[in-house]
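Hi R.,

Here's the chain you asked about this morning:
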Amino acid sequence: MSELVTGDAVVLGLRPARLPSRALALAIDLVVVWIVFILVSIGLTIATVTLDEAASAAIAVATFLLVLVGGPIAVETLSHGRSLGKLACGLRVVRDDGGPIRFRHALVRGAMGVVEILMTLGVFACIASLVSARGRRLGDVFAGTLVVRERVSAGRGIAVPPPPPWLVGRFAQLDLSAVPDELWLAIRQYLTRMQQLDAEVGLSMAERLAGELAVRTGVPVPPGVPAAAYLAGVVNERQARDARRVFAAAQAGSLGQGGVGVGSAPAVGVVGPAGAVSSVALGAAVAPVPPAVPAAPVEPGFSEAEEPGVRKPGTGFAPPA
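And here is the predicted structure, written out as tokens:
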């Protein structure tokens, strides 16, 4: 694990991606990019068949730069470091401090990728990744980025500390749809590592994150609530909503497979004559049961005979039905 320290003195435990996973992700990206490049080139060749040789060459160069160079840069910028290959392999490009990359990071990585990947068939990138302690290629070194493993086993995760009991359910009316994933990640990292921070640094980080979260939700932080407790309460509310959503989906799936519907009435047992029990739905009309006629008294030690007037000794044994 690589321990990166942010500017706010937060230690991040990131797992750098190694050469095999990065090579697989790069191969997927190259296959997709080359397929797009070939299709676009064929379409432009058919559309510009009447142009002269110089114009065709200029269009070919522009297509190469836009598709093979500009395409990966745009994808990494818009997806914050998740290309199609990296998404399939569970990887992501982040800054050295663990934050999401920007356009300038993707631009430097893409420009260096032309030299160390396209022109040298990836030889320079493989050598640099093997030599680097964190598996970085030259583009990562110049851009100040790092490719990390985004999917880790659930057993290695650190649980977020629960909020104070008096804050549970207090933020049920907050609109959390506008909160980005990057802010949730920063809040989670702070809550899981706030005991390792200096008191002043932790307080300033909590206030800054709480302010950003209040701006995204449109509701200010309640007065008298500490910033760290506010963050823990909102995160707890988000986890509760996710749990309810998953439970509702599972319940809907079970109902769709033949379960009892919501509007159906449950059945109850009704005792009928001679001790018979029948199942009747709630709300259904039940026929009145006639009162039972009391039986004639039976002398002790005898049982009723099958024929009137005949008595047999009672043994207390009930024959099987």
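One quick note: The chain has nine helices and eight strands.

Cheers,
M.
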